Amino acid sequence: MSSFSLLQTSISSSSSAFFANHKFTFNSRANNASLPAKPISICKCVATPQAEKTEYKTQVSRNGNIAKLQAGYLFPEVARRRAAHLQKYPDAQVISLGIGDTTEPIPEVITSAMAKRAHALSTLEGYSGYGAEQGEKPLRAAIASTFYDNLGIEEDDIFVSDGAKCDISRLQVVFGSNVTIAVQDPSYPAYVDSSVIMGQTGQYQKDVEKFGNIEYMRCTPENGFFPDLRTVARTDIIFFCSPNNPTGSAATREQLTQLVQFAKDNGSIIVYDSAYAMYMSDDNPRSIFEIPGAKEVALETSSFSKYAGFTGVRLGWTVVPKQLLFSDGFPVAKDFNRIVCTCFNGASNISQAGGLACLSPEGLKAMREVIGFYKENTEIIVETFESLGFKVYGGKNAPYVWVHFPGRSSWDVFSEILEKTHVVTTPGSGFGFGGEGFVRVSAFGHRKNVLEACKRFKQLYK
């Protein structure tokens, strides 16, 4: 076939009529086709409009409970606004004291144990596949002896997991959609959002910024951030976090005794979140099981995330005592075990090796040093805001400082601080209606960043 023939066949059919009306000359030496020098008419190409695309839709309805959730989950929303700020100010030195993510390296005594376990997986002798869904026995035993010594908690009461947040959702599956819940207000958003997703709540009520069918236990500076239980309606489940995220407050022994008695009087179950117990400085209970009778009405969830910097490693646990029974006498632990076995294959064996190292004498010492570092950060932040005349709460028993901006919108304060200091905080209203007018400042940060952020705070609010 000639070169000219090849040229003809390569021309699209939509253009062939145009070229057919014009004579081509072909220069074989130049291997090139050219039009004659005489003038040619102009041709306008009009694209044929494509058929309008239509989205294919399945016939599966969306989960209406998820549709009830408001906007995005708090912390991804904070991250989104941080990213938008960086787009606006690409050269800004943004400091994040918002999302409670740890920043200091995991102690070497812990990472070396994980590395050793990981390397062993490449050998016939050291390889292991699926483990017990409830966790490895040595780790369960170490958790029991370290955190629950003399409290009547045994190793088989402990379920090792990939984090307390994950266990909160698994517990919600255990309880089902027909229970009622109570939460501290303000409180960690996962309690409310998981309840909404499970179908335990009514619609969101914009006028009061609350979901229907949730009992919000108001926690304010006036009541020492512990709810007046005389005004709290009876619910099936009570979520309670101490030391608290976000307020940083820790319940006293007397207060937790009241809470346990309240649960007994109402036949309720307390889901006690003790993820920050090792930050406790006061002589307050570090576990709900320090309170007599608590094993009959409470379970406890906790985590290595904020103790050992395991936010990315993922390791936690939940304690479900044998004495905790449903109304028909069936043990809650057996149902939780069924959910764990059905929905979870157990925590990573590598992370469990790290958890076991955390609870060795050397590991405990290293964790306390890291916690001490973050507690020094809280002192710096507290002193900064107090010097500026703000009312400040928390910081002593938890890695969070709760700063009051009375009469102001939390999101407005968040935006003001971000815009004028390039520091990310967390708006208090993201933790519930009771958090409006507050901002949470996290102590998780490198020391130089905490000092620089506090310098900028002083420049803004001097």
Automatic annotation (TrEMBL):
Gene Ontology terms for molecular function: pyridoxal phosphate binding; transaminase activity
UniProt signal peptide: none
InterPro entries the record matches: Aminotransferase_I/II_large, DapL/ALD1, PyrdxlP-dep_Trfase, PyrdxlP-dep_Trfase_major, PyrdxlP-dep_Trfase_small
Chain ranges of the Aminotransferase class I/classII large domain: 93-457
Keyword Transferase among record annotations: yes
Keywords: Aminotransferase, Pyridoxal phosphate, Transferase
Cofactor: pyridoxal 5'-phosphate
Protein name: LL-diaminopimelate aminotransferase
Biological processes annotated in GO: systemic acquired resistance, salicylic acid mediated signaling pathway
Family per similarity comment: Belongs to the class-I pyridoxal-phosphate-dependent aminotransferase family. LL-diaminopimelate aminotransferase subfamily.
Organism: Pyrus ussuriensis x Pyrus communis
Gene3D superfamilies, A to Z: Aspartate Aminotransferase, domain 1 (3.90.1150.10), Type I PLP-dependent aspartate aminotransferase-like (Major domain) (3.40.640.10)
